[in-house]
Design brief:
It is a single chain. This protein has eleven helices and three strands, in the order βββααααααααααα. The longest helix is centred in the last third of the chain and has 50 residues. Helix 5 packs antiparallel against helix 6, helix 5 runs antiparallel to helix 11 and helix 7 packs antiparallel against helix 11. The chain is elongated. The chain folds into two domains: about 30 residues; about 190 residues, no CATH class. Strands 1-2-3 form a three-stranded antiparallel sheet, with no helix packed on it. The chain starts with a strand and ends with a helix. It is mainly α.
Length: about 325
Amino acid sequence: MPNCNCDNKQQRVFNGLGYNAAPSAPSLEININQNNPSPCQSSIDGYTPTPISSPITKSIRRPPNEPPPPPPSAPFLENEYSTPSYLINDNKRREGWRQIGRNASIRAVKAGEAIRNKFNNERNWAIFKLSLCELLFSTILLSLGIVCVCKTKEFCPYYSAIWTSIIFILNSFIGLITSKTNFVDHYITHLILSLISIVLTFVGGTISLINWQLIGTYKQNNERGRQLINPKADEEQMYRAFCLLGEHDSRRISYIYSHMNEYNFRECLIGVKIGIAVNSLQFLITALLGILFLVSIVLCLFRICTKYVGEDNKK
């Protein structure tokens, strides 16, 4: 059996020899919640503990959690994402121009409807549009003739673009008046002027074609070539377009070589270009005006025949 001495040490004897026992680990016992038994122990003992509620405990309880308050607004972040003032001004300016364009288009449409309502029928409206087109092209032809006379008189000596365009403009104004008044006498006048205008388109187109072909050419025969355009021209006027040679001519080359210091080649070249352009455009515009005058003649004849046939049926 073990013996206990005053030092509280246990000794053991084996085969007559004594030895000390191995030291034991210290024990630590902790009791938590001794007053309230655990649920497991309570269930073993046969009862379930009930929570003890008191008014003091109820008053200490907190209300349910609420959503956190929103973060404070940062003024510098709002200003950072705001539209700059110059962009706002540009947008306002562009919107103003767009509104002006919309208003102008609306006014144009209303004006066109008001003008169209003033005409009696669709044929008068067609004559009105034809007369406007004739007036436009006749004005262009007149301006081309004036430019040719002022800049390069030798390339359009007959002034065909001027006096033919004056007749065309007069016919256009008669057509506008006819479309508004709807009188038979005005239709007859417009018909006669349209017939005269068609003849003048053939004359003007032929003259412009001859002028275009004779630019840069010269014949020594007085009855042909440049003499056909300007019979009163002297020898110096015949060589006016000295910067352009349509064919080899020793006499003309010698004249240009002997008088080359007296003329401006750059001005001559510009005059040749203007002469070619004016005569080409005159030919094209007269051809187009001839087609428009032909349509006007058809409309006038239809209107006149309808007027007289309607009166005969009434009788």
